[in-house]
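Handout, page 2. Input:
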Amino acid sequence: MTAIPLTAGIEGLGLWTAQAPSWAAFRGLLAGAAVEEGTRPAPALLPPNERRRAPDTVLVALEAAQAACLDAGRDPSTLPSVFVSTYGDLAITEHLCQTLATAPLELSPTRFHNSVHNAAAGYWTIAAGAMEPATAISADFAMGLLEALAQRATGAGAVLLVGYDGQAPGLLRQVAQTEGLLGGALVLGPATAGRPRLRLVLVDGEAPAVAAPVAAGNAMAPLLVLFAAIARGDGVALLPAGPGRVLRVELDHG
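Output:
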C-alpha cells in the first residue's frame, strides 16, 4: 500500500501572544523591530458581551483563527476546523476543583460549560456560522498538524488548524507546565504560487528544545518553531511528537 503524502499549502496565518499580538508583530520581532505588546485578545467575531464572558483560551483561539482566515481570504463558515490544546482552560479547571472541594453547591454552570475541551471549537462554530465539522483534540501541535493534513488527504479542500494553551494557576502548576497565553492558526489548503508549502514526515528521534522568542514556557510553544521557520524562510522545522518521535515539517517557500 502506498502512503498518502501529507502536504498542503499555507494559505493564511494568525498568531496572538502578549509579546507579539499578530503574525506581522511576530515577524517584526524576529527581525529585531520594536513591537507593542498586547493585553487581552479581542476577536471581533464575538459580540462585546460574549468577549467579556469568554475565557482567555477561547479568546486567543478565536483571535488567531479569525486572523488566519482573513489572511487566507477564506470565509470562516466554509472551513472544517481542528482545535488542538494540550490542557484546555486550566484556570477554569482550577476554579471548579476548588469549588467542588469547598462549596460544591455553588458550582457555576457557565464555568462548567467553558471547562470542556471543545469550548473554543464550539464558540468558533457558533460565532462564524460554521456548519463544517469541527474537531477538538488534547495533544501537542504536531498532532494537530497531522490531524489537519489527514483530513485534507481524505477529502477536505482546506482546513483551519488552531493551537492554543493558557496559564496553569494554583495547585495545577505542580502537574501542568504551561505559562502565559498563546494561540496560533493556519489555513491549510491546495498549494498556490506565492505561498509556502509544507510536507509532514514522522520520524524517530528527539526534537530540539523549543527556543522561541516569545511564550517559550507555554505548552503550545512548539507551534512557534514552525511559525519562525516560515517567517525566516527556513527549509525544515522539527516539532516534538511524543516520546522518541519527531514531526519533521519540510517547507518550500516557492
